[in-house]
UniProtKB/TrEMBL annotation:
Residues 1-64, 136-155 are annotated as: Disordered. The lineage of its organism: Eukaryota, Fungi, Dikarya, Basidiomycota, Agaricomycotina. This is SH3 and PX-domain-containing 3. The keyword Cell membrane does not apply. It holds the Pfam family BAR_3_WASP_bdg. InterPro entries: AH/BAR_dom_sf (IPR027267), PX_dom (IPR001683), PX_dom_sf (IPR036871), SH3-like_dom_sf (IPR036028), SH3_domain (IPR001452), Sorting_nexin_WASP-bd-dom (IPR019497). Residues 266-389 form the PX domain. GO terms for cellular component: cytoplasmic vesicle; plasma membrane. Residues 49-60 have a biased composition (Acidic residues). It comes from Mycena chlorophos.
Length: 700
């Protein structure tokens, strides 16, 4: 379709709207892109020259003309090219690593430029007859609010959909070493508005928007055929649509109140039964059982649901990394939970395996709770593929699928004109303030909860000391950590008769009851309260988790204001509304899940406290009943039975083991980085003197 030619006024407008300068050093990103370009150039021409390669196929390739959209101050040490808005460029290679392109300016200088900082001018061709759509012709018409029509948003351009491959898919599947050092934070200096494809969608739309609309009928027909007989053909058709991002799972709907529409009912996922395995290729690793529980919908409200359907698969940590990588590429507009960090030292210890199991269960549970991520094809594949052969065959296909980018927003359907700019601006400011306050409050709650657990350990020590003191009084044996307090020899001989024995027996029972209460305090702090302490990570740092959503929302609002100013660009305003519907649906999802999370945390804590105190009451009441027994009953004059705790009087258990702490959250300010521990141990091993005079002496 022909489009309007760019006018000189457009360049002036672009120059006015400069992109804010970022001082973040993106050297690693640009170095990766430049290295990748040199490697490809070397492979083709055998030369490391910055000029075009000598290969006839490369040299004869037509350079596409482009124009800079924003000012960009490049860094020469990383071979970046500085441009100003409106400069004419030629694109040597469009797709390089980490969002860069190789371009050449009019002076013949070649360098790296962010892919979203320019647009191809070949798209703006002059046509003798320009046909404007009815939508753009009515730019001066007042838009009426509507909440009934649900339509896809996008500029429709009939172009063929060609999947884009951006480098080695396996390299993207695993976090890099520098990301582990920096706590999982990306070194890409571009905002989420850029990296998610929202900016490209707002500015230029999506090339496959036409195909999305056209493919709905094909997808519906394929769905009907899936119910019929030809299963193989249907599966092939569904896989083809999935590779193009046109399957049913790639269509997302937002209702009039800015909530995601749920396609699948919620279900539970448990991560359990970790076990250590050994492979000749990858060495030792821990594998976890992942069980999905699906409850059939009940037709009768009075009829309780039956036993759920269970599907159990076995996954290791690297499989979770693959899932997370594929999800972030296919759902760029969704605030996904962070994946637990990679562990480099002590990863087979019992405490760490249990902490990792809990973190992975919380991660996958938050994935299946999200109304959009729940039905992503890679999620259903991850939870349902039971065959190792099938897993190895299909994983490369999921990783090879191109990043959704702007096409994600082309598949978001929502009511027309349901966004008010003022309300959207106030909503994001309230949301930002709220998430920051919640994050600060939760961090304080986590610290206080740690002190509560320490107080329970102190109570355990106090109850145990009281028990030892009472037992020392009864047996006349001194307590090693307390002054000698006991009966004299004459009192011991007197107590050898009748009532004295009865009171001593009851005292021993009381001492043992206090020991049981001390054990309850200790176990409660180490297991029950530790689980609650770990669960608090699920509501920690919401501001960091939704930072990308907030940034995208604010940037889109700025574009929306520009597009709606005097009705200058209705199509861009429509695309902005799609992004705003997406971000506001994410905010609503957070509020809904926040209430569920805090309700579950409070319920879990109170249930644990009730169970703890009920067990303590059972033991204390049993000891209390011993003093209500009639002294005339037989058996009270029998010799006192020795207590199992008498042997501990010389060495009382008053120094408990350190209290286990929850594993740090990815976004914690100063987490304990496992990789730093590994580096310190490695350096220490090299510097530590060895009896054999070699660094390998440690292994002898």
């Amino acid at each position: 379709m022909s489009t309007l030619p760019r006018s000189p006024k457009s360049s002036r407008i672009i120059a006015k709207n400069k992109r804010p300068h970022s001082e973040f050093d993106a050297g690693i990103n640009s170095s990766t892109a430049w290295t990748e370009h040199l490697e490809q150039t070397t492979a083709n021409s055998g030369s490391l020259s910055d000029e075009e390669p000598d290969d006839p196929e490369e040299g004869d390739r037509e350079l596409r003309p482009a124009r800079a959209l924003y000012d960009f101050e490049g860094k020469t040490e990383f071979r970046e090219l500085s441009v100003e808005a409106g400069d004419e460029l030629e694109v040597v290679k469009e797709d390089l690593a980490d969002g860069w392109s190789l371009v050449k300016n009019v002076a013949g200088e070649v360098g790296l430029l962010p892919r979203t900082y320019y647009t191809f001018t070949s798209d703006f061709t002059t046509a003798p007859e320009v046909s404007l759509s009815s939508f753009s012709m009515q730019s001066n018409h007042q838009r009426d609010a509507s909440s009934s029509t649900i339509t896809p948003r996008g500029s429709l351009r009939p172009e063929e959909i060609v999947p884009q491959h951006t480098g080695d898919v396996w390299r993207a599947a695993f976090p890099s070493f520098r990301q582990s050092l920096l706590g999982g934070k990306s070194l890409n200096r571009f905002s989420t508005f850029v990296t998610s494809g929202a900016e490209e969608w707002v500015l230029k739309g999506s090339a496959d928007a036409d195909a999305v609309v056209a493919a709905q009928a094909a997808a519906a027909a394929a769905h009907q055929r899936m119910i019929s007989t030809e299963d193989d053909d249907d599966e092939e058709e569904r896989n083809r649509l999935s590779r193009l991002g046109l399957g049913e799972a790639d269509h997302h709907f937002v209702d009039a109140s800015h909530n995601w529409k749920t396609k699948l009912p919620p279900f539970r996922v448990l991560v359990h039964s970790p076990s250590k395995r050994t492979s000749t290729l990858s060495g030792s690793f821990t594998i976890y059982s992942v069980t999905s529980l699906f409850h059939a919908p009940s037709t009768d409200e009075a009829d309780p649901p039956g036993s759920p359907t269970r599907i159990t698969v076995h996954r290791r940590f690297s499989h979770f990394v693959i899932l997370h990588t594929a999800l972030t590429r296919r759902l760029p507009g969704i605030a996904l939970p962070p994946l637990p960090e990679k562990q480099y030292a002590g990863r087979f210890s019992e405490d760490f395996v249990e902490a990792r199991r809990g973190d992975l269960e919380r991660y996958i549970s938050r994935i299946v709770r999200h109304p959009v991520a729940r039905y992503a094809e890679v999620v259903t594949f991850f939870l349902g593929c039971e065959s190792d052969t099938e897993w190895k065959r299909l994983v490369p296909q999921h990783l090879a699928m191109p990043a959704a980018g702007p096409s994600f927003y082309a598949r978001v359907f929502h009511p027309d004109f349901n966004v008010d700019a003022d309300e959207a601006g106030e909503a994001v400011e309230r949301f930002d303030t709220h998430t920051r306050a919640v994050g600060k409050g939760v961090q304080g709650l986590r610290n206080i909860f740690g002190r509560v657990r320490e107080a329970r350990i102190e109570m355990s020590k106090a109850e145990r000391l009281l028990s030892y003191s009472l037992l020392s009084l009864i047996t006349s044996q001194p307590l090693a950590s307390a002054p000698v307090t006991g009966a004299s020899l004459e009192e011991e001989e007197y107590n050898a008769k009748g009532q004295g024995l009865a009171q001593r027996g009851r005292g021993v029972k009381t001492s043992e009851a206090l020991q049981s209460v001390a054990d309850l305090y200790d176990d409660h702090a180490r297991r029950t309260q530790l689980a609650t302490h770990e669960a608090l990570k699920g509501v920690a740092h919401p501001s960091s988790l939704y930072e990308g959503v907030i940034n995208t929302h604010r940037s889109t609002l700025s574009r929306y204001s520009q597009a709606t100013n005097n009705n200058t660009d209705e199509e861009m305003a429509a695309r902005c509304e799609t992004v705003l519907n997406t971000t506001m649906a994410e905010m609503e999802t957070y509020h809904t899940q926040k209430l569920e999370d805090f309700s579950a945390l409070a319920t879990e804590h109170l249930d644990g406290e009730i169970a703890f105190y009920e067990q303590a009451l059972v033991r204390l009441r049993a000891a209390r009943r011993g003093f209500e027994t009639d002294s005339s009953q037989p058996g009270l004059t029998q010799p006192r039975q020795a207590s199992i705790y008498e042997r501990e009087l010389e060495h009382p258990r008053l120094s408990p083991a350190p209290l286990p702490q929850p594993a740090p959250h990815v976004f914690d300010a100063a987490p304990m980085r496992p990789v730093s521990v590994a580096i310190q141990e490695g350096v220490g091993m090299l510097l530590r003197p060895s009896s054999r005079g070699s660094v390998f002496g440690k292994f002898w």
